[in-house]
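[job 4417] fold queue: 2 targets
>>> target A
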Amino acid sequence: MKINFRSIAMTIVFFNGIGALASGYLFMSDPSGNRIGLNTGLLIHSPFEDFFFPGLILFVLNGVFSGITFTLSMINHEKADTFILIQGIILSGWIFIQIIMLKMMHPMHLILGACGILLTYYGVMKLKTKV
């Protein structure tokens, strides 16, 4: 059985995007974080006083950009693999920065970090084969 890595990448991008849109919206609509069981005390080591700007960044970079990436992949656009690579870098960077700013690690950081690394690896491998 041949593994379809593009389908795996698209699935990761899709679910990352849905989660980021929902979470980003919740953070922007309730910057205290209470709506999803968080509090601003988590942000003590970050430059943010509340979750509004992290929510906005999450919504745009991981949510909207994932939607664009997924759409380009669905229509087999020539830049789809580049967008998957960029999305992997964004997701990996987001998780890395989050761990540093929160000074803590949750199991979801490992899962999403691994997804970011997989997307980055897939993008690099696909672009290498095009050269």
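>>> target B
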Amino acid sequence: MRSMTTFDIQYAHRFYGFQGEARYLHGHTGGLTIEVEDTVNPGVNMVFPCNEIQKTAWA
């Protein structure tokens, strides 16, 4: 069994000393998917609770 959680993330950066457009602050949008596979935990009827995956990802 698998539990999956997907995050949409936005981040910004710039390159100091770079002569191109990347020297200016600019942002990106990305995605992060975390998948956990194991046997089902009967206490929560899941492999790993999705809200716990989120807490672990941002720890």
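[job 4417] complete. Note on B: The first strand starts at residue 2 and ends at 13.
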